[in-house]
User: Fold this.
Amino acid sequence: MKEVSIYTDGACRGNPGRGGWGAILVYGQFEKELSGGERETTNNRMELLAAIEGLRALKEPCRVTLYSDSKYLVDAFNLGWTKTWQEEHFRTGKKNEVKNPDLWQTLLDLVRIHEVTFVWVRGHNGHAYNERCDTLATTFADSFLQEEEDASQRPE
Assistant:
């Protein structure tokens, strides 16, 4: 199996608000940057989408180390929350509905294809790939604001 590192981050301008995600795939000397976003979303959705889109970009099953500054994402896998959520039909131990079950299910499906190790990195702490992912995510989130400003300046 190929060994790939994926670095991810999500951002949101307001929560909910305009959001963006960024992912960088690293395989040997090759790097690929990805980004996207949604006009009305939450930070957690963007963190999850960054991981999803990074894994979706892989063309074959790989051994992946996925780095994220989202404790929620990393802990969900490393502390076994996802297993419990699945057993409880995406309900927490207190029987509350897990938020974003659609994204969690998609991510769980992708994790079955690849061998994924989740690693937490401290955000905004000088980690080059994390900082670049943050820039990708925030730039995309901010692009929605620019579109809105451009539209408001057009003559009718």
Notes: The CA atoms of residues 21 and 97 lie 24 Å apart.
